[in-house]
Write a structure and sequence with these properties.
It contains two helices and seven strands. By secondary structure, the protein is of the alpha+beta class.
Length: 128
């Protein structure tokens, strides 16, 4: 699957404020109010693990304002987590980190992503 990068930031789950991510989403969505397709939060370029720096790219399937494309390999194995609402995203990420800390989730740290469609939100974690 190919998605188009709209805007990216380098961030860290523990050294940066969540407001930095919220502002990125708000800025992108305000500029693309008419787009009604799927949105993606792509997590990539990991420095190490969930405690290190990474890049978050906001992407979609149909609008490109740059030449930047991100390819999500359909052959990769993913563990998919369903999210009840936007308010539960951070809660689900905490569950993911807890599973990893307990050795119950073996992450590949290649490309992880959140998918926002009209009917559901899912988090896809790449597995080793």
């Amino acid at each position: 699957m190919k998605v188009y990068e709209i805007k990216s930031i380098k961030t860290n789950n523990f050294n940066d404020d969540v407001v930095k991510i919220m502002n990125l989403w708000q800025e992108v969505l305000m500029n693309y109010e008419d787009y009604d397709g799927n949105w993606y939060g792509i997590y990539h370029e990991y420095e190490s693990n969930f405690k290190g720096d990474y890049t978050l790219s906001i992407c979609n399937e149909g609008i490109s304002n740059s030449e930047e494309e991100i390819i999500i390999d359909k052959d990769n194995k993913y563990k998919i987590f369903e999210v009840s609402s936007n308010n539960d995203i951070s809660k689900v990420w905490q569950e993911i980190w807890d599973l990893e800390e307990k050795g119950l989730l073996k992450r590949a740290y290649t490309i992880d992503y959140e998918k926002y469609s009209k009917d559901e939100i899912t988090i896809h974690i790449a597995l080793k």
